[in-house]
């Protein structure tokens, strides 16, 4: 009997729902992370176990069988080879290294190392380069093979020696460039204070060996600071870059008129050594000059009338306009006067002598090479003999050369007495 159409549709819908539920449950079971692998296996893609000794897990989460396995690693026999669980490239060999081949010292533990047999050799747990093998033994950095049979200890690293330079004399190693073997007896080709040497590469100065082209200096003083050493010592030097002058060994650029200069000395006019504040590299060529035989720094000083002027520059003319000194304020004068002679002073009121000085117009205290005291000159460089500076002797600062001084002036107007500080001329 045929089913009604509505009932048939209802049965088909139920079957579809049951199928979807079953498919979903199966998918959840497949993707479940609860899958467990044996101790020798690993999980791949979340749902597959594989043996890493014969298989590997691809990036897509699929298990692929190894072409070949080495220990727990898959490898390609076309490009690699396996030595007792250690993978090396094709053509390489394995060495169980226990010692440093350069210095012969043992390592804390041995380790398998792949090596190229075309350039290295593994001998008695040493891994050394093939050129450093002598009679089946590895040689260190300071060892050379003599007559292909004997390892000889040498002073320098082995690349410094020519082939067959180190030889044997009655079983004893010797350097053929400085010694000779006759009748099984060794002797020096040349001696310097009992030491054998090679005359083609070395030379002897009174018992001191220097390289060819060098010279000897008996050094007694420190060329940088000029201080004497506790004792003199012979020093080999290159005359192309250094000079030995009066027991000083200095670089050639630090020589002035036949004398060595220190770290804080500069040569002026190629004749005079000038002491400077900073180390000599801080100064430009010809920056330090001479003024009537006195050294001065041309960037901060100039020579005026044979005197060294410490100056500042006028922004408009870039000329030296006055001495750049530190002016100290003096204590107020105790002089009291009832007369007012301030009319000839360009400045009236003051508190100290420095207030009465006019920068760039008054006499200045010019000093030789920054000495403690100097002489009064006006800004044009004329001396006191032509201008009648009030200070006839030496001066220490500009105040000593000012025309006017700051004094206490007392004025009386009837019964009113007024006291104030004013600039007055002598």
Report on this model:
- Keywords: Signal.
- Residues 1-27 form the signal peptide.
- It is flat and about 125 Å long.
- The chain is mainly beta.
- The chain has 4 domains: 41-90, no CATH class; 93-188, no CATH class; 211-299, no CATH class; 336-424, no CATH class.
- It is built from 2 helices and 42 strands.
- A 3-stranded antiparallel sheet has the order 35-36-37, with no helix packed on it. It has a 3-stranded mixed sheet with strand order 38-41-42, with no helix packed on it.
Blueprint (SSEs and pairs):
Layout: H1 5-30, E1 42-44, E2 48-50, E3 55-57, E4 63-65, E5 68-70, E6 73-75, E7 80-83, E8 86-89, E9 93-99, E10 106-115, E11 120-123, E12 126-129, E13 133-134, E14 137-138, E15 143-146, E16 150-153, E17 166-169, E18 172-175, E19 179-182, E20 185-188, E21 191-192, E22 195-196, E23 202-205, E24 208-211, E25 215-221, E26 228-237, E27 242-245, E28 248-251, E29 255-256, E30 259-260, E31 265-268, E32 272-275, E33 288-291, E34 294-297, E35 301-304, E36 307-313, E37 320-323, E38 336-337, E39 364-366, E40 375-377, H2 384-387, E41 405-413, E42 416-424
Parallel strand pairs: 38-41
Antiparallel strand pairs: 1-2, 3-4, 5-6, 7-8, 9-10, 11-12, 13-14, 15-16, 17-18, 19-20, 21-22, 23-24, 25-26, 27-28, 29-30, 31-32, 33-34, 35-36, 36-37, 39-40, 41-42
Characteristic key phrases:
42 strands; 2 helices; three-stranded mixed sheet; mainly beta; 426 residues; signal; single chain
